[in-house]
# Entry
Amino acid sequence: MVGQIYARQLFYIIFLIIFPTAVLFLPAFSVGFALQGVWISILLAGVVGLFFAYILLSISKKYPDQNLIKIMEQVFGKYIGKIIGILLGFSTFYLTVLIMREFGVFMQITILNKTPLIVIIWMLLFISACAVRSGLVVIARLADLIFPIFLLALLIILPLLLPSIRTYYLTPVLGTGWEGIFKGSLPPLFWFSEIYILPLLLPFVKEKGQLNKAVYGSTLASIILLIITILIIIAGFGPHMTSRTKFPLFEATSLTHAFFIEQFDIFLVTIWIMGLFMKINIFYFATVYSFGQALNVKSYKSLVLPIGLLMGISSYTLYQNNVQFIRHLSGSGPLLLSLFSIILPLILFVITRFHRRKLT
Amino acid sequence: MKVLHFMLCFMLLSLLTGCWNVNEVNRIAIVFGAGIDQLDNGEYELTLQIVIPTSNAQGPSGNVPGRSFMVLTKKGKTVGEIVENLMHEQSRHVFFGHTKMLVFGEKVSKSGVKEIIDWFERYREFRFPFVFIAEGKAKEVLSTSMPLEKIPALGMQHMISFRYRHLSRLTPTLNQFCELFYSPSKVSYATRIGIKKIPKEKKLQIIGLGLFKDGKLFFQPNNNQVIDFLFFRPESINGGTILIPCSENPKKFSTFEFDRKKTKVKIERIKNNPVYNITVETEGSIEGTDCREKIYTPEQIEKIEKELNEIIKKRMTNFVNLAQKKYKIDFLRLDENLREQDFSYWSEVENQWEDIFPTIEVNINVKSHIKEVSGATYNPIQEDK
# Structure
């Protein structure tokens, strides 16, 4: 056992899995399809996201104190389970690579314009490797530290955007018809499905009684905050500009001013580094841990550095330029991931649901 | 081990000192205004208004005399090229992060700002300045100083963000300009600045609005027409006056000043044609009268309200006619209301809106409310009756 975390920390972790990258990239992807109706899209995706949370919880509850890899070994048989476990490790590996590149793109476009991508990524990776080596407990405590700062900063920045909002930007809601709304709900759906690593983390939680509260509460909180943030961005920035700019929240923040302080965008970048750092930590840990479990490695710590090296290298060699990356991120990337984040949990859910006897 | 940890932490501190492309404050030239002109040979001319920091510093005996800003110009084929070349002439990094105003010359506005706006939108240092159109050349506007302000660009910013000017609600920042520009109707607007030439001196003034269709300037309403434009827009009107002619002498006027305004657009469909019912509710006060009639009676106020209704209605009708008959362009953005209220019909006519717009029926209904006639109960003119 690596240690135990509290339900409160799980709440923070789930929030930090979904929210930080979603609010950065989602507006540009989703608003392009749904325009002002994007909040309906997110709401729809959120409902499905809550259903995912239910699936993951019920899988995990059927096998308490077992992590996802071990569950799969019991459901699919030892060898097939291990193979799927390794593939799952690859999926989180890939996801981590995506997030790292997201971080790199974000930093390059916003503040560190001329810094090579390699520097940005390796610096973050180094700290992240330290955190992952220290274990989930340390990551959870980091979440304890970062979540309040993150939330507080968001609650400071969002009201500052209020003076620049124009309510007529928010209508017509169904301007693109239901087709656009459904299309717009796909990107947030992929984002909400990123909680598929939950069954890996749930066995670590000390207070089993509060699992439901933490998981549903956190998903709900990120849905609500996401909707509020996107509505404020659209109202302040206009739907077409939101869909055209790469990081609408960042751009919109440069409109803010309070008293004599102007241009909070740099402030935003600072807290976003924290958010993205947490997200990378969690998925990095999930990768290393699931590889360790599937390969029966004594301590997953020996895997941290080699896997980290591979991640670092692939995050800047996989894509030749940022344009290619963004195209990938808005298209085929999530589809590939949905194999593990949507289809695998569904299969597991169906099997565990209809198996009368408890598998041993 | 502990020593090693400590040293590692200490080494991490060295990362905090700075990053790759660090620009110290005293190594940058801060741009406050940028302007673009088109030359006859198709090249662009970029004009930058840059602060001279030393002259703005506060010494013990007040300000250091001298010019507080300088103007740089450079010609080139693209904006990016011009900026690069400008950097070669300066001892400091030309920094665009604090640009407060972006001015398009008249010529470039007429031939289309589509091509050049891209650079301003993309350039990383750029935030969102206010967008203006110059009457004439942008270069002239940017090199004109303002007597009360050290940096004219900042002065212009104060001028348009002053709350009680009706244009203050309309002057778009770059993001709003682009938002209008990319919306389905492709009509956007920017505030126009003119230069008033008094002997020995030049003076900046706001002279109205410039309306763009698809990035091309086509109509330049003056300050009075801007109020007409605002009647159709959801923005409120603060400040701005309307003159009401006296009943006994049409050459003398009472002045009505706006406090607020509300526009409601209701669309009915009659025989497959949209009919617009626009209701405008205004609220304000009479700020003085040259008329002989007493204005401080409820009956008289009612009468003036009615007259005001008629005046506003007439002005609005004229303005709609201008859009429908003369320009045949929906610069009032009535299509947005249709899209909002009757989406199924809108999606049918979306592509032919240009043809349909000149034929639609617009009914205007005005409700004015005068809530105050200022402090005095009698006007001096009534005395010499």
Remarks:
- Residues 78-110 of chain A form the longest helix (33 residues).
- The interface with chain B takes residues 109-110, 112-115, 119, 123, 166, 168-169, 171-172, 174-175, 177, 237-241, 244, 251, 254-255, 263, 265 of chain A (CB under 8 Å).
- The mean pLDDT of chain A is 86.
